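Task: sequence design from structure.
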């Protein structure tokens, strides 16, 4: 979709609440979220060739207000409400993405360490759309919503220098206003990575540690040793089952019997004793 195909699909209702055109009704008053001028609802009810999608239009010509600007503004407001809700209700928001430098698929629990969410927070050199702050008031990450303007180079440099993780959400159509959560869970760019072989790992001070635990083997006969990677970063603590070669070696030398198949990243832990007696036990048998 070309930028000039974007329509106004959100408005403020009489209570100042952002409303999507799908939920708008003829006869109610609506206002532009950005310039606050009056909107008229264009909803013909007809569909098919030649009829435009339902949208709002300014009642009077407003030269400095654009649909892209409103898309940006409304998405930002809706995303802030969503993040506030998740934070207040303590719901985990898992954000996943593929690292642009190393292709590693990452996921983090976005709000684990977040104490406050600020709109247009003043960082001196720039004001990111949304800033996520920890309890000491330090900015952990910023969310930039991009419709037509990518963040400036000096802002990107500032984020890197201050180890602030950039999360970028690119928007192309106004339909993405109906997918705020999906866009947050799968952003376009995240400058952060938990793969120790990646540059971003060093830059953002991620720490990894093998954590050992004991478990009963799948035949429920023996105690065996298992492990996982404890990852600590600005996003808090998380568990990872993706080991790099050095970590597999280290775990093995500490008595963990594990194999990682070439095409699978998640290892299998094998009971040393059952393996020796393989064939004598029916695997579906329960004890
Ligand atoms: Zn306007
Ligand atoms: Zn990476
Ligand atoms: Zn066993």
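Answer:
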């Amino acid at each position: 979709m070309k930028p000039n195909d974007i329509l106004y699909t959100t408005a403020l209702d009489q209570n100042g609440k952002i409303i999507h055109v799908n939920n708008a009704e003829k006869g109610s008053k609506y206002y532009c979220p950005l310039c606050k001028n009056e909107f008229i609802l264009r909803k013909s009810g007809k569909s098919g060739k030649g009829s435009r999608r339902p949208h709002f239009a300014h009642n009077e010509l407003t030269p400095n207000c654009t649909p892209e600007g409103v898309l940006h503004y409304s998405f930002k407001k809706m995303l802030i409400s969503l993040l506030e809700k998740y934070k207040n209700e303590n719901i985990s928001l898992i954000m996943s993405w593929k690292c642009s430098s190393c292709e590693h698929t990452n996921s983090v629990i976005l709000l684990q360490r977040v104490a406050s969410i600020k709109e247009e927070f003043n960082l001196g050199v720039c004001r990111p759309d949304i800033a996520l702050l920890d309890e000491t008031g330090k900015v952990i990450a910023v969310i930039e919503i991009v419709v037509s303007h990518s963040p400036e180079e000096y802002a990107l440099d500032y984020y890197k220098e201050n180890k602030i993780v950039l999360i970028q959400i690119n928007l192309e159509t106004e339909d993405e206003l109906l997918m705020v959560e999906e866009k947050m869970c799968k952003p376009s760019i995240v400058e952060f990575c938990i793969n120790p072989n990646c540059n971003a790992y060093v830059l953002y001070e991620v720490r990894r540690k093998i954590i050992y635990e004991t478990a009963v083997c799948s035949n429920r006969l023996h105690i065996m040793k298992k492990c996982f990677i404890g990852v600590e970063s600005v996003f808090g603590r998380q568990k990872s089952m993706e080991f790099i070669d050095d970590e597999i070696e280290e775990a093995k030398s500490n008595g963990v019997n594990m194999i990682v198949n070439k095409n699978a990243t998640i290892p299998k832990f094998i009971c040393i004793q059952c393996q020796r007696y393989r064939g004598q036990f029916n695997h579906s048998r329960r004890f």
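The two ends are 60 Å apart (CA to CA).
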